[in-house]
Each structure stands twice: as structure tokens, then as C-alpha cells.
Design a protein that fits this description.
The chain has 798 residues and is mostly helical. It contains 36 helices and no strands. It starts with a helix and ends with a helix. The model is unreliable at 1-11, 440-445 and 666-679 (pLDDT under 50). The protein has helices at 2-10, 14-26, 39-60, 72-87, 94-117, 123-155, 162-169, 177-195, 200-220, 223-247, 253-276, 287-292, 299-317, 328-335, 352-385, 394-414, 421-442, 453-481, 494-501, 514-524, 528-537, 547-558, 562-575, 580-593, 596-609, 612-630, 633-646, 651-660, 672-675, 681-698, 702-715, 721-732, 736-748, 756-767, 771-783, 789-796. α6 (123-155) runs antiparallel to α7 (162-169), α23 runs antiparallel to α24 (580-593) and α27 runs antiparallel to α28 (651-660).
Length: 798
């Protein structure tokens, strides 16, 4: 039987193996989360599996005469991997280095297989690549445009939260809209193989795919892809003009391509102009308005420049070792202490070249730049040599590889595609094919590589499937505890969470130490000894985030043992000052122990680091906590006067100062004075609107009730009960799509934990026959104990 399988496989041509493999790679874009907190967990596992299948196909098909690995491209890759390996020894968290390193090795596996199977001189292989990329671009674009059209139509004549729809719903499996747009832009060059080739069916498919893909990229509205698209259009026009000049052949490709781009541009811009008129808040721009902001300094640009400066500063201080591959996310916390709110960690520098240098040292960063420089040199050199003759489409393949590589470089300069599987697939295909160029075009004599390489790659592939499986398993559990972990009384059991998370990786996607998440579940599950054993004895995977000290401070504060809590609270706030849970525990401890010096030490820097209403809130909390701690009205008034100097005539501060005249301390720490503030005119108007809305609802005057809730929401946008009520009104009126928008807004904000929004969102989805998603939210409502959720799930979810 085994021999029969080998005989059958041996009859399969190498080019068909290549075609199936690149098709599987291209479809990485369509691999969903399948329960994981992020789709990349599933996608890395998928890539590891198809790599093993690709190696098995090489062995079964008898393709044992492997190309040599002393190719210059593989030498450059080997040098880069060497510096990555050396950086592990200086890493704060070596387990995280192994996690990130395993993903790089999966990408290397793709490069190896493309190099061994691919042949840029084989038209069948190149067309197979073009068809695969064209089909995936078409499917992805239709999905994105279809979702947007559905969401806009569901809103009817109501206001549209366009920014929310595009940021949350149009990312597909890419994480965010920037990645979705850049991934499509990196795939477009491979469509050129069909678009400008000699196959008529391929040309038609290429033009249709390109039109939809261009519209999608323009609608996603990301400036980095606009820059890349501009360069892409220039390079393609140069190529087409040069080809026409050399051949003098009558070819409409130049005209068709530019007409197609103009049509896509006007179609996308016209649709955005139309729907932006109805958006809830005028945040989302049309194509022209967004393009005009390229080069403008703003919050996004300033933040990028700051992160680049931080990475450069670290490189100057650690030029030889770096912080260890995958460890910048930990190191960056020390730079961003007064920029990070709660646990919103800036995991990347938004520049892969700077990040590689910071993680592996100057030598590693230089090796990364040299790799891309070598790839560009090979492409330019190959294109120049092809002028002398050879296969007529040789330069077309070089154009596809060159433009795809340049699109990746632009993205890597402004974002972090090194983390995302889909972007890495695009890069790996380009590198693997570029590595074949010298032998494909110039037929230089080569020797086959060692016979041990294939078994070695197979063993590595199986190991990567195992590690990727562990990461995926952990990410599934992270998805389950994403909202449960923050509850004061988590619903999931500690043993269930501990077994699901495992010990590899040891950081979550939020960079929280996995072992300390387990410890919190143990502490709240009345298994203190196991929790303390972890907190006191386990190695800290991310000491910079202060979670260990924060948990200990929180636990002892819950037992009213503030003398034990306060020292840990101070350490946690030192590490992450803008984490509200850390500051709250610190304030309670300072009030209980009358430690006014600590309040004076910690609050002013935090206030200085915040702006607007957040700064006002911190001033107010500082004054309230200080008065509770000391009872000194004069000193507290001085704090309020300092706040009023920064925010003149701020009503909440003035009201607090008036309340303070007759206030006696002794209530709930840090809150009593605030609770006695008189109602503002907005509060009075808000309460009247609430009363009217409820009266209209009882009288079944749903349109009037909706108008009142909308006005109330405009007065207090953060009061999510208004959106919940508007969702209920739409549900009563059987406007299921619109009700879903309101309930999803509440769910995404994590405003409530009672399962109410999840229950009614499930009802809306089930009414629209979206059974799978509806049953998912019904399950959440059941887990949160909302009345009727169990019956809903039992009735519709088998």
C-alpha cells in the first residue's frame, strides 16, 4: 500500500505540487479565528501544517534532487537567523523569543518550499500563482464590500458609525484595516502575471479582480497603502511604456490599467462621499480628503516618531545584544510608562527595521536591511539582463516580485507586518521565487544539496506544528477569558483556565503573564495557597507591567490589610502609573494608612501625563483622596486651585470646591466628596429625557422614545444604557439589523457584564437567520446568567 501511494505520487508533476501549495498559501487570508482571540493563532498553525504537507509531497513525488542552499539569499537569511538566535541569550523572556522565533521558522519553511518547488521560467507555475492570488483578492474584496454594503443598508436612514463599521467589521481575519489593506496591496502584483500575460481568460479575471481590490483598498482608507499604491501605479506604467517601446506591439494594457484605476478611484470615492454624509460622527474621510492628509503631522504620525525614537535610543544603549527577539513589547513599557492607559501595551515600534535592530542589536538590524537590499539587487540585475532577450514574460515576473517586495518594505517601514501570517506569506513567496532567479534565467550549473536537508526540515516542521498548536490552544482560552478575567467574581473555574492556557506561551496577546492570570483565578476561587505559590515563586515573564505586585496589592486591600497592600501598590504604580486599578488600590491604601506623602508623590506625575477630561478626573480624584486622607481643607483647596489654573472655570472642579465647604470626611475612600456634588444642567436635562423616553415607551410611542434616547446619548455618550434601550426599541419594531448595531456597540465597549446586550443581540441575529453567530452570543448570555438565555439557546441552538 505504501509503495502504491509512492508510485501514484511520483506521477504527479512538480508544477502541480507547486500550484496546490501556492493556492493553499494564498488561502491563509480566509482562515478564521476558530475561537482564538486573534486569527493569527489559527493562521500560523495552518501554515505550519501545510508546510509539513508540502515537504511530504516533495518526498512522495520523488523530487529529491533539492536545489542548493548556498544560494546568496539563503546565506543572508542564515545570517539574520543567527543574530536572532544570539539575541535569545540577552532576552528578558526567552519563552516569548521562542514563540516569535517559531513563527519566523514557519515563514522560512514557506521560503524553502517555494524555492525548491518554484521555477520562474515555468509559465504554468507563474499562472497558477497569479490565479490563486487573483481569486483570494476577489473573495476578500467581495467579503469586505458586501459587509460594508449590508451594514450601511441595515442602518436605513439612521446615522452610521462608519469608522466603527470599517475598523471592527471590515478587517476580516487580518486584525485591523491597515493589515487588510496592506495584505491586498502586496497581493496585487501577483495578479499582474495574469493581467499583462498572454492568456485572455487570465486577463479578464485579472482585470475584474483588480477593480474590486482597488475599490476595497481605497475604501479601507489607510494612508500607508495610498503611498504604496501611488508607487505601484508609477512602476507599472513605467514597465508597460518600456515594454511597448521595446516591442512596438499594439497593446491596450497601458490604457486598460489606467482606466481601471481611475474607475476604481471614482467608484470608491463616490460611495464614501455618499455614505459619509450619514455617519454618526464626522470622522471618516473620503478618498480625496484622506489622501490630502498624507504627510501631515498628527497624533498617529507623532506617536510613530516617538516609538522610532525610543527604539533608536535603546539601540544606542545596547548596540551589540538588543533586548532579544520578540521582547521589544516588554522593553517598550519602560519607555511608555506615562503613555499606556491600563494594559494597552504598544507591542511594536511601527517600523520592522527599527524593531529588528532593537531586538537583535545593530548587527541584526543591518542583516535585515542587507537581506532586502540583496533581494532588490537581484531583481534589478535580472531585469537588466533580460533586455538582451529570453522568455518574453521574464520581466513581467520580475515586475510582480519587485512591486510586491516594495509594497512590503513600505508597510514594514510604517507598520509591523512581521507579526501577521498573511503578510509573511506574501514576503515568503517573493523571497522564495527571487532565490530561484539566477538559476531560472541564466542556467548556472549547480549541485544538489545534502540528502539530510529534507528529513531535517520535516522534523522541524513537525515541531513547529506542535508549538503552533500549543499557541493556538492558549489563544483559544485567552478568547474565552477576555471579558471574564476582569470580573470581581469570574465565572470560569481556575482549573479550566489553567489547563487551557498551559505554560507556552507565557504571555497573552495583551502581554499579561499567563501564570499570574492563573494566580488571580486561584485567589478568587478560594485557593489562596496555589495563587500565592505562583505569585511568590514563579519567574515573572513580564516584570515591566507590574501585574504581580498589582494582584498582591488588590488581594490584601480586599482583606482590608492595607499595611500589606500599600507597598505592592506603590511598586505597581511605579511600573504602570496610568493603570486605573493600580491607582485605585494605592489611593485606598494611602487613605487607610494616612499616607499623604505617597499621594503627593504619585498623583501629580499622572495628572501631568493626561489631558482633557481624564486630567480633570485625576485632579478631582487627587483632591478627594487627599481630603479623605488628611481632612485638611486648606491643602485640598490648594490642589483644586492648581487644577482650576490648568482648567479655568471647569464646572466639576468648581462644584467640588463648593461641596468641600460643608463636607466632613469619613465616607467611602476617594468617592464620598464626589458623590455629594450637585447635579449639573446637563444632568437635569438628561434625567428629563430619560423620564420622557420611558413614558413614551409605555405608551408605545416608539419613535418619540427613540428620539429621547438619542438626545440622552448625545449628552452622555459613555452612558451605554441609552444604546441598549435604542437597540430594544429597534427590536420591538423588528428592525433587527439596526438593533444589532446598537447592541454590538454596548458589547464592544464592555459596558455591562450582565449578559443583557448579548441576549438581545442573539435574538436579533437569530431573527436574521444568522444562527451561528447568534448562538455564540446566546452562549455568552447563558454564561453570564441572564434570564431566558438558557431557553433561547435550547430552542434555536442545537
Amino acid at each position: 500500500m505504501k509503495q502504491k501511494i509512492k508510485d501514484i505520487a511520483a506521477g504527479i508533476p512538480k508544477m502541480k505540487v507547486f500550484a496546490f501549495y501556492v493556492a493553499a498559501l494564498a488561502f491563509t487570508d480566509l482562515v478564521p479565528q476558530i475561537g482564538a482571540i486573534d486569527a493569527m493563532g489559527t493562521q500560523w498553525l495552518y501554515l505550519a501544517i501545510i508546510n509539513v504537507l508540502g515537504l511530504a509531497a516533495i518526498w512522495l513525488c520523488g523530487c529529491k534532487d533539492l536545489k542548493p542552499l548556498h544560494n546568496k539569499v539563503f546565506v543572508a537569511l542564515g545570517l539574520l537567523f543567527l543574530f536572532c538566535l544570539l539575541s535569545v541569550f540577552s532576552a528578558v523572556n526567552r519563552v516569548e523569543s521562542l514563540v516569535v522565533g517559531s513563527r519566523y521558522l514557519v515563514s522560512f519553511g514557506v521560503i524553502f518550499l517555494i524555492y525548491q518547488l518554484g521555477d520562474t521560467d515555468n509559465r504554468y507555475m507563474m499562472r497558477a500563482l497569479g490565479w490563486a492570488m487573483s481569486l483570494v483578492c476577489m473573495v476578500s474584496s467581495l467579503q469586505i464590500l458586501g459587509i460594508l454594503f449590508y451594514k450601511v443598508q441595515s442602518a436605513g436612514h439612521g446615522l452610521i458609525n462608519l469608522e466603527g463599521i470599517i475598523s471592527a467589521d471590515l478587517t476580516l481575519n487580518q486584525g485591523n484595516k491597515n493589515f487588510a489593506a496592506s495584505d491586498l496591496l502586496q497581493k496585487i502584483p501577483f495578479v499582474f502575471i495574469l493581467l499583462f500575460g498572454d492568456d485572455k481568460k487570465g486577463r479578464i479575471a485579472g482585470y475584474v479582480s483588480l477593480l474590486f481590490t482597488l475599490c476595497t483598498i481605497l475604501i479601507l482608507n489607510t494612508r500607508s497603502t495610498y503611498v504604496g499604491m501611488g508607487l505601484l501605479i508609477v512602476l507599472v506604467n513605467i514597465f508597460l511604456i518600456t515594454r511597448w517601446w521595446r516591442t512596438r506591439a499594439y497593446d491596450f494594457s497601458l490604457v486598460f490599467f489606467n482606466v481601471l484605476f481611475v474607475a476604481g478611484f471614482f467608484a470608491a470615492n463616490a460611495w464614501l462621499v455618499h455614505i459619509t454624509r450619514h455617519q454618526h460622527k464626522q470622522k471618516y474621510a473620503n478618498v480625496i480628503e484622506r489622501a490630502e492628509t498624507i504627510g501631515n503631522s498628527g497624533q498617529s504620525a507623532d506617536r510613530r516618531l516617538l516609538m522610532w525614537g525610543q527604539a533608536w535610543d535603546y539601540v544606542k544603549k545596547h548596540p551589540f545584544t538588543g533586548c532579544g527577539i520578540g521582547n521589544w513589547k516588554i522593553t517598550a513599557i519602560t519607555y511608555d510608562r506615562y503613555l499606556l492607559e491600563d494594559y494597552r501595551i504598544a507591542k511594536h515600534t511601527h517600523n520592522d527595521f527599527m524593531e529588528m535592530a532593537a531586538e537583535t542589536g545593530v548587527a541584526g538590524g543591518a542583516a535585515y536591511i542587507v537581506l532586502f537590499g540583496l533581494l532588490l539587487f537581484i531583481l534589478v540585475r535580472t531585469m537588466n539582463r533580460n533586455r538582451a532577450g529570453g522568455w518574453q514574460d521574464a520581466n513581467l515576473v520580475v515586475l510582480a516580485l519587485l512591486t510586491s517586495l516594495l509594497m512590503y518594505i513600505i508597510d514594514a517601514f510604517l507598520n509591523f507586518p512581521g507579526e501577521r501570517p498573511c503578510n509573511q506569506v506574501n514576503l515568503a513567496i517573493a523571497i522564495g521565487l527571487i532565490a530561484t532567479l539566477p538559476t531560472a534565467f541564466f542556467k548556472q550549473p549547480t549541485k544538489t544539496t545534502s540528502k539530510f536537508i529534507l528529513p531535517l526540515m520535516g522534523a522541524m516542521g513537525l515541531l513547529l506544528v506542535f508549538t503552533s498548536g500549543l499557541i493556538y490552544k492558549s489563544m483559544r482560552m485567552q478568547g474565552k477569558i477576555s471579558s471574564d478575567y476582569w470580573l470581581q467574581s469570574p465565572r470560569l473555574g481556575p482549573d479550566f483556565v489553567a489547563s487551557g492556557l498551559g505554560s507556552f506561551p507565557d504571555l497573552t496577546e495583551l502581554c499579561l503573564p499567563v501564570n499570574y492570570i492563573k494566580a488571580r483565578y486561584y485567589l478568587l476561587g478560594n485557593r489562596e495557597s496555589e495563587g500565592f505559590n505562583i505569585l511568590y515563586n514563579d519567574k515573572n515573564p513580564n516584570p515591566a507591567i507590574g501585574l504581580r505586585e498589582g494582584l498582591l496589592a488588590e488581594y490584601w486591600a480586599s482583606k482590608a490589610k492595607y499595611d500589606s497592600s500599600l507597598p505592592y501598590a506603590k511598586i505597581s504604580v511605579d511600573k504602570l502609573p496610568l493603570c486605573r486599578s493600580y491607582m485605585r488600590v494605592l489611593a485606598y491604601g494611602c487613605i487607610a494608612l494616612k499616607d499623604s506623602m505617597a499621594l503627593r508623590k504619585y498623583f501629580p506625575p499622572i495628572i501631568k501625563a493626561t489631558y482633557g477630561t481624564k486630567a480633570v478626573g485625576n485632579w478631582r480624584n487627587y483632591a478627594a483622596a487627599y481630603y479623605e486622607c488628611t481632612g485638611n481643607k486648606t491643602a485640598t483647596n490648594a490642589i483644586i486651585d492648581s487644577a482650576l489654573a490648568a482648567f479655568p472655570a471647569q464646572p466639576y472642579l468648581l462644584k467640588y470646591k463648593n461641596v468641600l465647604k460643608d463636607f466632613v470626611p469619613g465616607g467611602k475612600p476617594a468617592d464620598t466628596a464626589l458623590a455629594q456634588q450637585p447635579a449639573s444642567p446637563d444632568d437635569v436635562a438628561y434625567q428629563k429625557l430619560q423620564t420622557k423616553a420611558k413614558e413614551f415607551f409605555k405608551a408605545q410611542k416608539y419613535d418619540q422614545a427613540m428620539a429621547c434616547f438619542r438626545q440622552a446619548a448625545s449628552l452622555k455618550p459613555k452612558e451605554y444604557s441609552n444604546y441598549e434601550n435604542m437597540g430594544l426599541l429597534c427590536l420591538v419594531k423588528k428592525e433587527y439589523a439596526q438593533s444589532g448595531i446598537y447592541f454590538k456597540k454596548v458589547i464592544d465597549a464592555k459596558a455591562f457584564e450582565n449578559g443583557k446586550s448579548e441576549y438581545y443581540y442573539a435574538e436579533a441575529l437569530i431573527s436574521m437567520k444568522q444562527m451561528e453567530e447568534g448562538c455564540g452570543y446566546a452562549a455568552i448570555a447563558v454564561a453570564r446568567g441572564f434570564p431566558g438565555a438558557q431557553e433561547l439557546k435550547a430552542k434555536y441552538c442545537k
